[in-house]
Amino acid sequence: MTKVLMIAFMMIFTQNYVLVQFLAICPFLGVSQKFDSCIGMSGAVIFVMTLASAVTWCIYTYVMVPLGLAYLSTIIFILVIAALVQFVEIFLKKFIKPLYNALGVYLPLITTNCAVLAVTLLNISEKYNLLESCVDGFSAGVGFGLALILFCGVRKALERAKPPKSWAGLPITLVAAALTSMTFMGFTGIADKLFG
């Protein structure tokens, strides 16, 4: 149980894919302008990461390894992730049209979101079991969502701050993202005390 809690804590705080490992920056910067979009994208990424972790672990363990196809894991995992994203996209388009429209081009980008692929590959490289893989995927998605929601608040504050013209737009956004990232590095000491 301690290992599961450690995996969850690490993926949300100390190994956060966006703010610590700098993966999935495109949707992070693209969707973090509106709170509703942040919530919708977070839910979609949590769903895809969790389900992708479970499905890829099962495929890897019960199909690829016995058939000697482990070397194809990256290609097969990308196909699984693409299929899951298509499922999410179809579901949102049919049942939650406003969210589908708000996410726009960023929803299909989950397919190419390197954080989703990274979590599935990490599960295999760390030799996690099915439960640990699902917790890892879910927690990585929660960490992604937390980063989006926090940065949405930071961007709202930046809009009111009115930086100098040369810093307006992307430059101040990237500086703010770097500072937000630095705050998450402070959780490393907490993790060492809790699980060390």
Helix content percent band: over 70%
The share of residues in extended strands comes to under 5%
Treating each run of at least 4 consecutive H or I residues as one helix, how many helices? 9
What are the secondary-structure elements, in order, as H or E?
A: HHHHHHHHH
Mean pLDDT: 88
The SS-based structural class is: mainly alpha
Distance between the termini: 15 Å
| Unreliable spans | none
User: How many individual domains?
Assistant: 1
What gross morphology would you assign? globular
The biggest beta sheet is recorded as:
none
Would you report the number of β strands? 0
What labels would you give this structure?
single chain; 196 residues; mainly alpha; 76% helix; globular
Descriptive report:
The structure is a single chain. This protein is mainly α and 196 residues long. The protein has one domain. It is built from nine helices and no strands. Helix 1 runs antiparallel to helix 9, helix 4 crosses helix 6 and helix 7 packs across helix 8. The longest helix has 32 residues. The radius of gyration is 18 Å and the shape is globular. It starts with a helix and ends with a helix. The model has no long low-confidence stretch (mean pLDDT 88).
